[in-house]
Amino acid sequence: MTSNYELSVSAEFCAAHRLDGYPGNCKNTHGHNWGVTVYVLCTELDSLGMGLDFRDIKAHVKEALASLDHAFLNDLLPFADTNPTAENIARHIYEELSRLLAAGVNTGTARISRVHVAETPGAGVTYWEAP
Predict the structure, then answer these.
(1) Which own/partner pairs from 110-114 qualify as long-range (CB within 8 Å, at least 24 positions apart)?
(2) Which domain holds residue 71?
(3) Cα separation, 116 vs 113, whole angstroms
(4) Which of 5-14, 22-31, 47-56, 77-86 shows the lowest per-residue confidence on average (mean pLDDT)?
(5) Mean pLDDT of 69-85
(6) What sign for the dihedral angle of Cα 47, 48, 51, 54?
(7) Into how many domains does the chain fold?
(8) CATH number at residue 53
């Protein structure tokens, strides 16, 4: 039986966006304090009994969110051809963190399992890909 450990780290970033073509108020430029929770699935523990060091995960999350923080998301390359919806932001963060984690340690035993992005405390989306 394979052991699974799902580690999580939460962070926030502030950014503005607008949803082109949206029939309501979100078509106008507005901002959010976006909440992000990143989940990392580990199948093995290191000699200290950790799947990954939370400090390392937090550093990767900080790096992935740096280009989004205090930005107008519509102007960023990842959203050049698509609206920066919570769904598309979650996918972008997932892909960015997967790339960063693959360049780090324990790449064979850890992967990003899902990313949750909330534009308000009561409304969010979770993105994941099948392994």
Answers:
(1) 110/40, 110/41, 110/42, 110/43, 110/51, 110/52, 111/40, 111/41, 112/38, 112/39, 112/40, 112/41, 113/6, 113/39, 113/40, 113/41, 114/39
(2) 5-127
(3) 10
(4) 47-56
(5) 97
(6) negative
(7) 1
(8) 3.30.479.10
